[in-house]
From TrEMBL:
It comes from the Bacteria. This is Heme chaperone HemW. InterPro entries: Coproporphyrinogen-III_oxidase, Elp3/MiaA/NifB-like_rSAM, HemW-like, rSAM, rSAM_horseshoe, rSAM_sf. Probably acts as a heme chaperone, transferring heme to an unknown acceptor. Binds one molecule of heme per monomer, possibly covalently. Binds 1 [4Fe-4S] cluster. The cluster is coordinated with 3 cysteines and an exchangeable S-adenosyl-L-methionine. It holds the Pfam family Radical_SAM. Belongs to the anaerobic coproporphyrinogen-III oxidase family. HemW subfamily. It is found in: Cytoplasm. Keywords: 4Fe-4S, Chaperone, Cytoplasm, Heme, Iron, Iron-sulfur, Metal-binding, S-adenosyl-L-methionine. The gene is hemW. It comes from Streptomyces salinarius. The lineage of its organism: Bacteria, Bacillati, Actinomycetota, Actinomycetes, Kitasatosporales. Residues 24-270 form the Radical SAM core domain.
Length: 410
């Protein structure tokens, strides 16, 4: 969740949504994102809305404390119940992210999940995920999460090479994420993801292959692999600008992606989104699919974004300001926008093209259809799905996904 917030119209003090956003809501899937904004240290590449204890000292007082954060977030879940109304609507997915959610006590995460269950109810097959830092969990912690209702966990592995982790300012030791997978399986988790990053300065092809092999050897059923993006304002960006570490170019990113696809496919993983692979449909991250398909979700926590029925809003960034708003009985919303039909069409093209099922050609305008024909001729779209009415990226198309989608939208 990037730290920068867009502009927008004010959010009403009670958080009320336009009637149009709630029309037909009971028939749409609903997910919850619960943001935990705390980290033990700040990773050099991170631009997310997160805070270390040092960064919060003197800026938020008791309101920004990790110790009472779960209570504050529960207050927003209760606000969501008031805003969304009393129509029966079970929650399909819950995703606890950060930051480092596992810096909180396991019981706090279970209590936050319990508030969603108590206020809305969970679908019988609900997907309940938390992100986790490998160094902040142990078997007892994982067992508490599993007993409390979590059934999916995502560990930040990034790399199996110590020198790569050092560049990223990651504090876990190589081998620990793989051990966490075994501990999560022993605790009864149905689905386990490992997050990897490629293209770190100083990483070689062999380093990347070693990271993939280590991840696969651990036995997850889901792997996410993201190209490192150097965000302005981060410590890593400053180090690159000073010439301390080299910048990785796009050709290297493309080579690493091809290595990932080859390695993961050989191990029985299928891509279902440009940066995500799973061993089965059951292993896919349903919560992220809510985002990619424009469903409804409520994001609780500082800086969290939400979307319901074509209305998108975002919370104030700072934990102290967030907690202060809720303590005063007000919405923590900082701004919102009401999407037009054209906005939603464009977003569908932008997001659904990244999925294995692709985007319906019927969503494209005349210029977009012409661009799709060119992309097909250039080997960027698959022929079979195109003939059936969908634009689906080929492997080469995935390498150029951002350029392809820009053409289709234009």
């Amino acid at each position: 969740m990037p730290s920068a917030l867009p502009d927008g119209e004010p959010v009403p003090a009670d958080g009320a949504l336009p009637a149009s956003a709630l029309a037909g809501a009971a028939d749409r899937p609903l997910g919850f994102y619960l943001h935990v904004p705390y980290c033990a240290t700040r990773c050099g590449y991170c631009d997310f809305n997160t805070y270390t204890a040092t960064e919060l000292r003197g800026t938020g007082g008791v309101l920004a404390s990790r110790d009472n954060y779960a209570d504050t977030l529960v207050d927003e879940v209760r606000l969501a119940r008031k805003v969304l109304g009393d129509d029966p609507r079970e929650v399909r997915t819950v995703f606890v992210g950060g930051g480092t959610p596992t810096l909180l006590a396991a019981g706090d995460l279970v209590r936050m999940l319990g508030a969603v269950r108590d206020e809305f109810g969970l679908a019988p097959d609900a997907e309940i995920t938390t992100e986790a830092n490998p160094e902040s969990v142990d078997p007892a912690y994982l067992a508490t999460l599993r007993d409390g209702g979590f059934n999916r966990i995502s560990f930040g592995m990034q790399s199996a090479r110590q020198h790569v982790l050092k560049i990223l300012d990651r504090t876990h030791t190589p081998g620990r994420p793989e051990a966490c997978v075994a501990e999560a399986r022993a605790a009864g988790f149905d689905h386990v993801n490992l997050d990897l990053i490629y293209g770190t300065p100083g990483e070689s092809d062999d380093d990347w292959r070693a990271s993939l092999d280590a991840a696969l050897g651990a036995g997850p059923d889901h792997v996410s692999a993201y190209a490192l993006i150097v965000e302005e304002g981060t410590q890593l960006a400053r180090r690159i600008r000073r010439g301390e570490v080299p910048m990785t170019d796009d050709d290297v990113h493309a080579d690493r992606y091809l290595i990932a696809e080859e390695t993961l496919a050989a191990a029985g993983f299928d891509w279902y989104e440009v940066s995500n692979w799973a061993t089965s449909d059951a292993g896919r991250c349903l919560h992220n699919e809510l985002y990619w398909r424009g469903a409804d979700w409520w994001g609780a926590g500082p800086g969290a974004h939400s979307h319901v029925g074509g209305v998108r809003w975002w919370n104030v960034k700072h934990p102290g300001a967030y907690a202060g708003a809720l303590a005063a009985g007000k919405s923590p919303g900082a701004g919102r926008e009401v999407l037009t039909d054209e906005d939603r069409r464009v977003e569908r093209v932008l997001l659904e093209l990244r999925l294995r099922e692709g985007v319906p050609l019927a969503l494209l305008r005349e210029a977009g259809l012409a661009a799709a024909r060119r992309a097909l001729a250039e080997g960027l779209l698959e022929e079979g799905p195109y003939e059936a009415g969908s634009a689906v990226l080929t492997l080469r198309g995935r390498l150029l996904a951002d350029a392809v989608v820009r053409d289709l939208v234009d």
